Amino acid sequence: MSSSLAKCQLGEAAGGSKVDSSVLSRLLSDLQLMLHSGLAESVDLFIIHAANRLSGLPLYHYFLTLQAEALHQMGQLEKAELTFKKALQFNKGSGFTPVLPKEDDFYCKLAVTQLARKNYQGALQSLLTIATEQRSLKVQVLLIQVNLNLGNSEVVNDIKELLRKVPLALEFILTMLMRGQSPSSNIGKELVAIVQKALVDLRMTASFFSWIVPWIKLKTIEHCQIWDKYTFQQLATEVQALSGTTAYLMATIATCQFNCGDYENARNNFAEARQKDPCIIYGMTKYALLLEQIKDAHNLDLVATKLMGINPDMPEALVALGYYCLANSGMELSKTSRVIYLAQKAILTDERCYDALLLKARALSAREVNKNDEAILHYRELLRYRPWCFEAHEGIVKCQLFKAVPKENLQSLALVQAFNAVKLCGKNARTFTLLARVFRKDPNTTKDKVHAALDKALEMDPKYIEAISLKVDVLINEKRQAEAINLLKSKLESGLQDAASLHDKLASIYTKCGRKDEALTHKSAYYSLCKMKEGDQQLRSLEHQMPSFKGSLGELSIHLSDDNDRNGSDISF
């Protein structure tokens, strides 16, 4: 920079005296350093107050460029764009070559400002000013971002071309997947082929690239709305078999399991992801929802505290904290109101934080708030962007069933929504169970339809707890206790993961039938499983807090006892 300054003839300043080139060089260097150090406001103030002296210099356009960058950092985007254009006019009229290292850098900065202002046509014109052979990777990325916002169809080919050169541009892989036209789209296979060929061509075949293709397949399942749990389990097994599976991959697996309705495995994989990386952010809002569903306040506290420690203003932290408050609300209006506040703050922070919409809707539909109409509006808004979100469909159905609407309107409200869930979320156990729940409340629906929907759900997933529980309730209402007992016994013998609630239900049936011994046996099993589950959660929490802790609590107590024996201590364990 100093050499170019020395070559050019400095003009007269407004005050009539010449400016020493060394002073000017030092001034430009200091302003640039201040700008890169976060002192944007100081740069802006200096150039504003020194404008009369600087405007007479032939390199005034460079000072204007620095001021425009400072304004952009300060968020004054409109003024920044005008200052960039003013700098361009001074540069063309000065008769000097640009001071910037490359001319396209200037147009890049102008385009970035125009993109931030959502002036997409202006940003496109600025970028197209740069010759094709001079367009750097940064310019290509900006062109893709602008064309995406303008909805230009040729952007797909631009992304493919970029991936052939830079196969690690993962965010554009996600962009391509999100532009898939239908659940049967082959975009995932095409992306895998492009990336695999590019990795081979660029000799990037080392083992630490082995995760990319499985990751693309996982994201294809997520974005193309393939909610077949068994198809996904095969891919999850393939991913987990990779050596050194990362926390992000585990969280991606858990997210897909969450979308498939496999909540138990999703919780376990989210917990494993947090063990691998306690600071992971991706997927933690869904993990918080899963923990709130089982009222696991302890682990919710750990998740929310960690996210708040990373950045208390990011939407993920606000949503996790909201679910923690919801789990501990105890049906108190003041605490649930705080949940609504946190969800709204997350939405204002990032309008695309759809998990915050779900949190707010759940809080509004809580019994102590009882704003079902508002909750339904939020659920519907969520379904505009995520039509496959089962929790939103389920929330609308629950709100409509809870509302005091005429019975003749029930079929046209909740039943239509339940059928939409089957259509949009796929034919699986949870959607058929939701449909059976509505059939059961509808006076115009026969009992045969309820049983048919539940049988279909259990056929698709014989271990789906909610379908089993609802089937038992239906049988009991029909005075068919013997069939309900046989169903529960057969399911318990099959080895379910979370069988505590079924033991409790079977104990209640035995109590009503006067079979106290059997009732006591299953009630004891219920309490035993509850304590075991609580102990597992505490142990997992302890392992998370102490990564070097490898043994069990029993082994720890043995070692402590041995030490006490050697030291002659009277303390016993």
Please explain how this structure is put together.
By secondary structure, the protein is an all-alpha fold. It is built from 31 helices and no strands. It has helices at 2-7, 21-36, 40-49, 51-54, 60-73, 77-94, 103-116, 120-128, 137-150, 155-165, 170-178, 187-201, 212-223, 229-240, 247-260, 263-276, 284-293, 297-310, 315-327, 333-349, 354-364, 372-385, 390-402, 410-425, 429-441, 447-460, 465-477, 481-493, 500-512, 516-545, 553-567. Helix 9 (137-150) runs antiparallel to helix 10 (155-165) and helix 24 runs antiparallel to helix 25. The longest helix is centred in the C-terminal third of the chain and has 30 residues, at 516-545. The radius of gyration is 31 Å and the shape is elongated.
Please give the structural blueprint:
Elements: H1 2-7, H2 21-36, H3 40-49, H4 51-54, H5 60-73, H6 77-94, H7 103-116, H8 120-128, H9 137-150, H10 155-165, H11 170-178, H12 187-201, H13 212-223, H14 229-240, H15 247-260, H16 263-276, H17 284-293, H18 297-310, H19 315-327, H20 333-349, H21 354-364, H22 372-385, H23 390-402, H24 410-425, H25 429-441, H26 447-460, H27 465-477, H28 481-493, H29 500-512, H30 516-545, H31 553-567
Low-confidence stretches: 1-17, 94-101, 181-185, 542-573
Q: What is the rounded distance between the termini?
A: 74 Å
What is the makeup of the main sheet?
none
Fraction of residues in helix: over 70%
Strand content: under 5%
Overall 3D form = elongated
Compute the number of helices: 31
The SS-based structural class is mainly alpha
Give the strand tally.
0
Mean pLDDT: 78
Radius of gyration: 31 Å
